[in-house]
Amino acid sequence: MLTKTRIGGALLLVFCLTYWWLIRDIRLLPFQVNQAFTARTIPELLAIIGSGLAVLCLILPGSGEKPDLKGLDWPRVIGFLVLMSAYGLLIRPLGFLLSTTAFLMIGFTMLGERRIWISAAVAVPLVVGFWVLMTQGLDVYIAPLPAALN
């Protein structure tokens, strides 16, 4: 039976397969060809996961229930969309460490954590650890601070 879930699953499958096909156009530098992690790795993973979920939508039986969008916290959703947009705009001027730490701490506050020291105790080591992993472990340059401070 053709339900909304199956139609959505079919459209998602078409999108993911098209996305997977277009990933081939991402150019790799000669030294990246044999690397384990390249510019294609995450897009390929997203295409595989999306295709798998789409197939599940197609083969699993639907519940027949309509989704309840009234129960969502729309102001929080919009707040996170604004926060993510601001993060995207501020990551270059502020640098990775400052902008990502601020992003996480504001996000924690929006989710209900009111103790600043807990937000900082989680965000700072996480951001610094990720930055060290990317720059030292994977040899990917990420500007840690604003250009004026470097």
From TrEMBL:
The keyword Transmembrane helix applies. The chain crosses the membrane at residues 6-23, 44-62, 77-104, 116-134. InterPro entries: DUF1468 (IPR009936). Residues 7-141 form the DUF1468 domain. Pfam families: TctB (PF07331). Keywords: Membrane, Transmembrane, Transmembrane helix. The keyword Cytoplasm does not apply. This is Tripartite tricarboxylate transporter TctB family protein. It comes from Jannaschia aquimarina.
